[in-house]
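Example record for the data management plan.
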Amino acid sequence: MATEQSVEVFGWAARDSSGHLSPFSFSRRATGENDVQFKVLYCGICRSDLHAIQNDWGFTQYPLVPGHEIVGEVTQVGSNVKKVKVGDKVGVGCLVGSCRSCQMCAQDLENYCSSCTLTCGSLESDGNLTQGGYSDVMVANEHFVLRWPDNLPLHAGAPLLCAGITTYSPLKHFGLDKPGIHVGVVGLGGLGHVAVKFAKAFGANVTVISTSESKKEEAIQNLGADAFLASNDPEQMQAAAGTMDGIIDTVSAVHPIMPLINLVKTQGKVILVGAPDKPLELNSFGIIVGRKTVSGSCIGGIKETQEMLEFAAENNIVADVELIKMDYVNTAMERLSKGDVRYRFVIDVGNSPLKST
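Corresponding structural encoding:
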């Protein structure tokens, strides 16, 4: 049951835009009547964590404990909690709050609520800054806690809480989840490799689009893609023009969009889920003549995220991960900035010493 005392928590935080992470002690709120407290066992490292700790987007407040792909075991529940019980495995993704009353929330689209609260780096109603999963304890409102499927591995499933829902949601929403649909996936990183797995599970014909020819074997042999397209090869790109129903673009670096628009059929869709830090250039004529669409998609609501976890468990979909201890996190960030990971770092929080020595 709930206690009246705040919870002492240990984690690793960035203090400034150098992005360097080091041990940090702080407090979380006491477990309220609608709250779930859990011991953090694993937390994925998302590229947005790197952007956040370095203040690449210009709105980071310090100190910041990153991490929004969080999996753990329930240790305490509030008196009103019905969804989970002590001992259950649970997850928390990118959201820990929303207004729960707007049109978006009413449609289970809390991720598009103008008052949503992010798991780390957001201000809560009490004025405190939310802190993420690079820490040993989480406390979250029951609504934003996800039940963990029994047969879904904790460490390899953790990245699904961001990378998974970020690609699952647009595949579903834009009708790219049907057998025989031709889906292109741009980029074969943390998001891209999971997008391939989900699209294949839906029965789609999947082509990986990348500038790295070296990823062809990985895409086809290891991930099950049907084809590989080198985006820096004009002949390959021209030969594939007008062949795809939709494209999921996962790339966060600035890159040309018009060649991708040329790949989709009339009335085809290019959906952006990566977040470059500079504007992308569009030629309106190339969109108009084919009645094509360029759209964006941002994670997913809680109901859809739970659905995604169940689908992943049923279809044996997990991320390809490299498990690390917390004291390796700064090296992991350096490697991530260079693209040196296949495909997601996951911190073994439960077996990492977090306190200063």
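Summary line stored alongside the record: The two ends are 33 Å apart (CA to CA).
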